[in-house]
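INFO  loader      accepted 1 record
INFO  loader      residues=657
INFO  predictor   begin
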Amino acid sequence: MSEGELSRRAETFGVETSYYDARGQFREVSQDAVEAVLDVLARSGPPLGAEPHVHVRRKGRIEPIYGVCGDGTTWRLTRTGRTVASGTCEHGAVVLPEKTKVGSYQLQLDPPGPRPQAVLVAPEAAWQPKAFDKGGRVWALAVQLYGVRSDHNWGIGDFTDLRDLVRIAGRLGAAGVALNPLHAIALDDPGAISPYSPTSRLFLNPLYIDVAAIPEFPGAAAGLGDDVVRLRASPQVDYAGVIPLKLKGLRIAFEAFRERASDERRADFAAFKAERGDWLAGYCAFMVLRARHGGPWWNWPEEWRAPSREAIASLSESAAADMEFHAFVQWTADRQLAACSAAAAEAGMPVGLYLDVAVGVAADSADVWSSQGAYVRELSAGAPPDLLNTAGQDWGLASFNPRVLMATDFALLRETLRAVMRHAGAIRLDHVLGFNRLYMVPHGFKADQGTYVRFPLEAMMAVVAQESQAERCIVIGEDLGTVPDGFRETLAGWNVWSYRIMLFEREWTTDSSFSPPGKYPAQALVSFSTHDLSTFSGWMSGHDLAVKHGLGLDPGETGDERQEARTRIAEALRRDVAAEHVSFDDIARFLARTPSRLMVVAAEDAFQVADQPNVPGTINEHPNWRQKLPVRLEDFSNDHRLTEIARILREEGRAFG
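INFO  predictor   done
INFO  writer      dumping tokens
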């Protein structure tokens, strides 16, 4: 393919042939990599030109649509086949009525144009509580749910722990509890347990179910007590033990439910199945077939590689009990999580549950199998080389196909948002930069050999705003990494809050000092670190650097640079909170003084944990997603470290109520 032809084809598919990395260095993508990306996109989407051109209009400013018709062309605006407005093009424009309701529409032209036209009418912005409109500032406690220790759980934190944690956090003055993604994982590989590499973002991880809280579960009569005690005492989450034990307990509970459930419980189960419909049926079918055939679904028998509604319906008859079991598990998880959300509402918490939406799913996942074509599994989402990950990142995740999103009115994005928002007061969009352009690595290429694929940012933001308002849910965009010019301003225009990490908020163009609290934006979440970065204790001690060196990873920072950063943070704390030395209490006070609406305190920082939850670039080389907190849940309220932080935040005006 000639260079000119390659460039034209890349532009057609939104594939970038060059980009600037985090260091500002110009990178030209190899022709082989560009052709590999184009090949995948060309054969995995609809015929070129079949996807509609999407016009976004916002309530209160529904501007004319130019460039789609000539004077005298008639037009109709339709929704689900029904005409809601019509007219004639004037001055080369379609003028929509100002009263057009929020929703998705098709624009029909006579004579028709060369490609379909769609219209998304969005709210002015994403939703937020009125308290934040008036400058309210609050805080939330962040916890990796799997790592919660308690006297009742089965070796992994569960939804009963979460409900209790919500109440504890509320009494401490927290406005919410922030959590790792609760998405479903496959459960047939104890090593593949990353919450950011799920099998489905539409459903929940069964391991978080409190089996003992299921009304039909027989309790001690199930004979699982010895295993529960052993797993509860393990220093880290023992997934190889937890997974079979939980599944055994859930099977026992399911059989008991089938035998003696109340009419009320049966009716609620039926209502859940009806509500989740084909999405649930597809997920259950995948779980049944995965247990039957194992391995990636593209290696399954031919008849099961590409599902049809008829095939899934036949499986629902031939494997009825197993299909019902997985539906029962998801119903149980949903209702237990709903109880946690209800506890937050009862406590009057203005945020409640703050849940995470992973950037993609595993390539061999239920979501990819159920919605083939909507994802591009032959390309892995990742990130180009940056200051902390100098070799680039290949996350091994399948991401949305932008052309299919447009052709299906963003159906899968909508369902993903709804699935997480249904019990959340706030959500975090992991790597929201991917809504603008996503770095993709073709299979067989190294992490630094990928390139960016553009997505319809404005249309995706419109969908986010639609769903946010419908579910009354705050949206926070994790906008860390190589941020394009103007991107954060676009998010702010849609009222999607920024995600600001103190470790990164420095005056890089001058003396690298830490930015003062007043420089943080109001429309943001602020925290010291993230699950992928060092904890405060690990950062101060240099433990994270030692861990990465021990794993053969480049930490992107020398010991001398870290010492310089510690000096700078001490200066910032002296300047802004009159601190004589560096402690996390002083960090909390510093962050509390920012105008940012939501401040997050990680439990690992409060309890002085040195290890970070996850070390990027590792899978099983480091105990990622396995570490338990050093403090039992029952002792949270009495732990002086946490109560002192809560006192400081109340003093600084962060406590709600």
